[in-house]
């Protein structure tokens, strides 16, 4: 199972994860889409990837702003699974932006 990462390793990884920052025991990013359906389309695309990986973000949807929060709940912190999911979310956001 993935281990909780050292703070310094998370900080290094965040340098190459555009828009993501530490939020307690998670990393998060808020993305603004052009429309509410566009926000839901991005959420749906992320849901597919999360389901494939069996690693799911917490998601807050407010009109066309979506906040993704990634943490490995079973480990109580940030693991490589979260960094990988954040990168996948950025790739999907680039397609949906
Ligand atoms: C039973 C299932 O494999 C687990 O509950 C998975 C599901 N998705 C998950 N997602 C996240 N972010 N953290 C987990 O610990 C986790 N565990």
From TrEMBL:
Query: InterPro entries, from UniProt?
Result: PCD_sf (IPR036428), Pterin_deHydtase (IPR001533)
Q: What does the record list as GO biological process?
A: tetrahydrobiopterin biosynthetic process
- Enzyme Commission number, as recorded: 4.2.1.96
Q: For this protein, what reaction is catalysed? A: (4aS,6R)-4a-hydroxy-L-erythro-5,6,7,8-tetrahydrobiopterin = (6R)-L-erythro-6,7-dihydrobiopterin + H2O
Example of a GO MF term: 4-alpha-hydroxytetrahydrobiopterin dehydratase activity
Quote any Pfam family the record assigns. Answer: Pterin_4a
Would the keyword Flavoprotein turn up in this protein's UniProt record? no
Q: Which UniProt keywords apply?
A: Lyase
Lineage, top-rank taxon, reads: Bacteria
User: Which protein family is named in the record?
Assistant: Belongs to the pterin-4-alpha-carbinolamine dehydratase family.
**Any idea what this protein is called?**
Putative pterin-4-alpha-carbinolamine dehydratase
Question: What organism is this sequence from?
Answer: Hoyosella altamirensis
């Amino acid at each position: 199972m993935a281990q909780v990462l050292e703070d310094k390793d998370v900080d290094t990884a965040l340098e190459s994860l555009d828009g993501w920052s530490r939020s307690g025991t998670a990393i998060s990013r808020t993305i603004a889409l052009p429309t509410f359906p566009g926000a839901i389309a991005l959420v749906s695309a992320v849901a597919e990837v999360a389901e494939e990986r069996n690693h799911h973000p917490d998601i807050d949807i407010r009109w066309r702003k979506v906040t993704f929060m990634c943490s490995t709940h079973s480990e109580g912190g940030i693991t490589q699974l979260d960094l990988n999911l954040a990168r996948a979310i950025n790739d999907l956001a680039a397609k949906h932006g």
